[in-house]
Write a structure and sequence with these properties.
CATH class of the largest domain: Alpha Beta
Shape: globular
Number of helices: 19
Strand content: 5-15%
Largest sheet: 7 strands, mixed
Length: 515
């Protein structure tokens, strides 16, 4: 019976297609507004107490700052600096002044203005897994990351609108570290028009990357300085330590007017107190210390409050993600960010060693934590495995399916009379079907989300097609996506502009990374 109905519907569809050009579904995933209400995990009084305790940590205990120039900058604002122990104690008035100057809304300028982002509470952007030393896929296995891998991941991210920013997906370990930033920046600027990432590995490397962006985008020094054209991620060394490259990165990016995503990495039970409230208190204090350094360096510098707190496995000490504790910490971080009024980042990811049910489960719980917490940026939202030790090509695709599902849920749903469809209900007799009603025929081409990798066929058809798992289908999808990759506008022109600069700098010896 149902097969006869479907054949009839297909015949009617063919007749309709002869009368009018086909309408295809064209969802817009580029600028997402989170439609979910933020979920609290603490009371208002408890959030205020966490903030107050973090201020006490900064005032009474302080933060160890390894970079001498950073300690001097803190001192200019009135912080108490002990040059023998490198400890910096930051008064609450200094924190208050920094929070008053930090922007609550940041316009992130991409290579194509249609890819621009607005970082503010309520908006949400997704970033693929980043910072991994290894990559893996079904064909080539697990291996150390290379520039070719970085290039492929850049093209894949460029191809999916639900991933909004470029990032440091994998280390290009086949390129000398003195020249790696040239290669990585060139790939981002010539093969993507999304908002780019720059490593914070010392002033010379940062300034090289800034100059490459200015050249590629055709920006004057003032235009670059007065607009956010790239970002970096700053990780503190929990507990309560800011190392040399990270402190220098905050200063460099603040003075250049570029975005620092200041993110303590507080694993409860290891580098932070074992309680969620305790871990968030330490995280909050460390994030505030970084925000203060940025704002002293340049008042009004764009900063993003960062959170990536989770727990460890107390049997092995290994980090865990997508756990109840990870989700609770993310929800609490969202409350703290809203308390400050700042845009903020969360973190997804998985501790699984392979793209399997555990990987999907952990990543999607972490994703839902970020969505319900109202994160502005969710980093490691796709492809990230092994607690950050690898990025999987197949998992990138299966996670994109989850991200597109979330993006669909953000979209408004109409409750108009036409959508309610009283006439359609009246047209169908009890026990009938809606396949061929006018209401259905007007909408069927665009009514439902079309899966990227999920297989909705029945068991028989799935078996005849080879009984492929989602991971195996994802392998086909990423390869097809790379085959169909479309170069960005001006790709050859940008490459020609960058080459003389890169050649000159490499002939001069490149730029050492700071450690």
């Amino acid at each position: 019976m149902i097969d006869d109905v479907l054949r009839q519907v297909r015949r009617e569809r063919r007749r309709g297609s002869e009368a009018a050009p086909p309408v295809t579904r064209q969802p817009n995933y580029r600028n997402l507004r989170n439609s979910f209400l933020p979920q609290p995990v603490f009371s208002t009084d408890e959030i205020e107490n966490i903030h107050e305790t973090a201020l006490r940590v900064l005032e009474n205990l302080g933060v160890k700052v390894l970079l001498p120039d950073a300690r001097k900058i803190y001192a200019t604002a009135g912080a108490l600096v002990d040059e023998e122990t490198f400890m910096v104690r930051i008064g609450r008035d200094i924190v208050k002044a920094a929070l008053a100057s930090a922007p609550t809304r940041i316009h992130a300028h991409a290579g194509d203005t249609r890819r621009d982002l607005m970082f503010e509470l309520g908006n949400m952007a997704f970033l693929a897994g980043s910072g991994a030393p290894n990559v893996t896929d079904l064909d080539r296995g697990r291996r150390a990351g290379s520039l070719a891998d970085f290039e492929q991941l850049t093209k894949l991210v460029q191809s999916f609108d639900v991933l909004h920013m470029q990032g440091p997906y994998v280390e290009a370990q086949d390129v000398d570290v003195r020249n790696r930033h040239y290669a990585v920046s060139r790939v981002q600027l010539t093969q993507s028009d999304k908002f780019p990432f720059v490593y914070a590995r010392g002033t010379p490397q940062a300034e090289d990357a800034f100059e490459m962006i200015r050249l590629a985008r055709g920006l004057s020094d003032d235009e670059f300085l007065n607009g956010a054209h790239c970002y970096t991620v700053i990780n503190t060394n929990s507990p309560r330590q800011l190392d040399i490259p990270m402190a220098q990165g905050i200063i460099d990016f603040a003075r250049a007017g570029q975005i620092s995503v200041i993110t303590p990495f507080c694993l409860a039970g290891a580098m932070a107190p074992i309680s969620i409230a305790g871990a968030l208190t330490l995280q909050h204090a460390e994030a505030l210390a970084g925000i203060v350094l940025a704002q002293i360096s340049r008042p009004g510098a764009p900063v993003v409050y960062g959170s990536f707190s989770s727990n460890v496995d107390m049997k092995s000490g290994a980090p865990a993600f997508g756990t109840p504790e990870h989700v609770r910490a993310t929800l609490g971080a969202g409350q703290l960010a809203r308390f400050l009024g700042l845009p903020w980042r969360s973190g997804g990811g998985s501790a699984s060693n392979i793209s399997d049910a555990q990987a999907a489960h952990e990543t999607q719980f972490a994703l839902w934590g970020s969505v319900l917490a109202g994160a502005t940026i969710c980093i490691h939202a796709a492809g990230w495995m092994e607690g950050g030790l690898s990025v999987s090509f197949e998992k990138l695709i299966t996670d994109i399916e989850a991200l597109q599902t979330i993006a669909e849920l953000f979209a408004p749903v109409s409750g108009s009379d036409a959508e309610i469809g009283y006439d359609a209900i009246a047209d169908v007799q009890p026990g009938g079907h809606f396949f061929s009603t006018a209401h259905t025929m007007e909408r069927y081409r665009t009514a439902f989300y079309q899966p990227l990798v999920a297989d909705l066929s029945n068991f028989g058809n799935w078996t005849e097609a080879g009984s492929k798992t989602a991971t195996e289908r994802a392998n086909t999808v990423w390869k097809r996506t790379l085959d169909n990759y479309q170069p960005i506008a001006r790709a050859d022109e940008i490459s020609a502009i960058l080459e003389p600069f890169i050649a000159r700098r490499m002939s001069e010896g490149g730029a050492e990374a700071v450690s």
